[in-house]
Amino acid sequence: xxxxxxxxxxxxxxxxxxxxxxxxxxxxxxxxxxxxxxxxxxxxxxxxxxxxxxxxxxxxxxxxxxxxxxxxxxxxxxxxxxxxxxxxxxxxxxxxxxxxxxxxxxxxxxxxxxxxxxxxxxxxxxxxxxxxxxxxxxxxxxxxxxxxxxxxxxxxxxxxxxxxxxxxxxxxxxxxxxxxxxxxxxxxxxxxxxxxxxxxxxxxxxxxxxxxxxxxxxxxxxxxxxxxxxxxxxxxxxxxxxxxxxxxxxxxxxxxxxxxxxxxxxxxxxxxxxxxxxxxxxxxxxxxxxxxxxxxxxxxxxxxxxxxxxxxxxxxxxxxxxxxxxxxxxxxxxxxxxxxxxxxxxxxxxxxxxxxxxxxxxxxxxxxxxxxxxxxxxxxxxxxxxxxxxxxxxxxxxxxxxxxxxxxxxxxxxxxxxxxxxxxxxxxxxxxxxxxxxxxxxxxxxxxxxxxxxxxxxxxxxxxxxxxxxxxxxxxxxxxxxxxxxxxxxxxxxxxxxxxxxxxxxxxxxxxxxx
Amino acid sequence: xxxxxxxxxxxxxxxxxxxxxxxxxxxxxxxxxxxxxxxxxxxxxxxxxxxxxxxxxxxxxxxxxxxxxxxxxxxxxxxxxxxxxxxxxxxxxxxxxxxxxxxxxxxxxxxxxxxxxxxxxxxxxxxxxxxxxxxxxxxxxxxxxxxxxxxxxxxxxxxxxxxxxxxxxxxxxxxxxxxxxxxxxxxxxxxxxxxxxxxxxxxxxxxxxxxxxxxxxxxxxxxxxxxxxxxxxxxxxxxxxxxxxxxxxxxxxxxxxxxxxxxxxxxxxxxxxxxxxxxxxxxxxxxxxxxxxxxxxxxxxxxxxxxxxxxxxxxxxxxxxxxxxxxxxxxxxxxxxxxxxxxxxxxxxxxxxxxxxxxxxxxxxxxxxxxxxxxxxxxxxxxxxxxxxxxxxxxxxxxxxxxxxxxxxxxxxxxxxxxxxxxxxxxxxxxxxxxxxxxxxxxxxxxxxxxxxxxxxxxxxxxxxxxxxxxxxxxxxxxxxxxxxxxxxxxxxxxxxxxxxxxxxxxxxxxx
Lengths: 515, 512
Prior knowledge:
Chain A: Residues 363-514 form the Asn/Gln amidotransferase domain. The structure holds 2 protein chains of 2 kinds. By secondary structure, chain A is of the alpha+beta class.
């Protein structure tokens, strides 16, 4: 609750001097199959509450589940892309607990027999180095319904007058991807966490198995953090030998930026407690995007016992080797390799490519180049004003651009207007502002604002003559060979032309007349 | 064709089907005859929880019209049926004998019910049962017990005592049942009727309110082996809505029942299911039945299934475990009973769930939920649920070894004839022991049938013989059952059920 007083935190650098952080990330991904995990109901987001339900996903007495084959295929493809082993035989299990948004009061999930296990994902960090995230397992399960708590200040159940439940989400196929303890990252732990979730998102998008929209909840992250005393370098044998500390699990970390912030916050909070001689309570914590802190959720005590047992209503999943190999053949190019290929195609330096990757603009640039722009121009425009504004809004560039309706085709069109000589750079910037303001396509904005380089050499020449006549001192300097002085005249010519001239052409004319 | 008796309710389903097909009688006539019988005697027997007079007659009229229009109809079209209240019926109450589902009208039909409707069987109503099928007497029904037409002070078996008593009191020619540990077979045995638990997966479970998913199996109940086979053929078959449903045609059960041939068959008598704990009269009728089968040309041998001794213990861990989870959904949030806790202002959802479950579930249901919750708890899982699964595998191995030597196995269906209402209510263990012979088949998923073997000398009450076959070989039950049934009819000079006492008029209701 945002009314709760914030816990004490230790300065991050100080914390890193005393402790070694260990993380474990659990990522839930909603598959975008046409139908739910165990019934034929549609999965579309945003429908009228409780309009996409049937006896099965409402858990009515007598109803039985049937596994969605497409979801199993997606799970296997995800497993393969994460370099996992694929189970030759595995079962679903029931996770038993009572909650109103769970129709059967058990979740059909997988327990000790996940469909995929023992994999890894290599994650590239901002400095170009690679961190290998070991994957413990990826398993299939169904989503729960969604509770909406009405009344009360916080939107949480405590203090609410009543609650509404929407079961449209109940039964949507989920894949839960669980890492092994992520060790050895040291002070870069928050960055590694963010880079992992980002790489996972790219991978899932490339696999075309999920919308991976963190803001819509189709990709959700729970971050486990623990600290142990620092005894050496993060990757040293003596450091790795120190037993793990007590962990907390922070829920609702639903943006890339939040992943980094939440991990960092928990590290500082744990450090303050441990340094003060306290001990960490094993509990779930809620992340608050607005205040940037976590607050206590429910305590994980011995009372929490899900009484897992194999789901007797479903037959085991037993993919043949042939099926698995056929699915392996459908895997897309791994994002890491793909990046290297694109960097070479686009002729970017390592630094330029890293900027593009960090900005999350790889796909946008790829599509912009495909729409006809040069790679250099695509990078220049996307990493300029749109990126700056997206950052200021705390959004990623893809989401931000989509929200505004700014498309790769727009950027390619803008670039085309510059290349064809209709716009100069500063005019193109004005046009982009117009597009970002929702005034229409680049051509439409340029037309509406009357932006066009004057192609009439007569008008330009007249302006040049006028400016030279008005500035005899400067003209004399240029005649004496001080070419740099031309800049002052160009500026005045552009002013005469109300900006609608090609500055390069103006410079050529001035120099031609004075040399 | 056999002439129909004046009282249509005394006719077999097969004979009714023949008369309907030849248009000698109409479905409306038959259905009305049964509705009249229900009105006359159900006050004494209490077989039905809900009678759908208008619905049944409407369905009967529709079948008659289709027949008049020359449509080709299924074998049982127009023959009315009673449906166990554990099966969802669109528009008709489905309570499972529990207060927690009082007033719930399902929005969908169980696959079995859909098949009945498509085959043109008018549904007379829903039959009583132990709450959520937990029991062997119907005394655990929240709506009061059904009574045994042979002696209204005795139990009609359970959980399907509504379906067995409906048949034995001629309130329906056919009924559906479900059998998790004997709920079709034991009620058949104590009422001198017939009931089959098909191979697990042979009949769809979609729309059966689950007790224990890995053990539950729906099946047919009738007064003769052929009637039961005809209904089996309607209920069975693959259902894409049930993952555990077998993707194969229904075994040739009707052909087997008509052929009624056991010549050359090897029949194994299970050593562990008999002897001590079995009533002398039950054993005597069983031994006579085995001798008859031998006379009919079967070869009889004794077979040992040593792990059957652990079946009851394993069953009472697996069943409550699955049940504790299956029954979690009854929480007052979406349907059924909702009880607000007393003395609590603004109760939370959890408090409403707890109050509802406390008020809505009976003591046997609570007992099993608690047992199952305990057995699945971390730290106990391996010792209880895990060990029980191992026993289950051993029992399946015993069956496999036995079926390597014989074609079918036989045993008494239940250790005793019908006991008195109230006799075992306070002693759950004694109640559970009633299913000792029927439980192994559920653990192994193999099919089983009970047919009447005669009346026990000491109390004059019906006893049953159980026939068990390998998985998917359900037709063998009907071969043996029909052959033995014919021999017993000869021996007793008519169907055993004909010896049941006449029920008095509704006015003579005993303690109803």
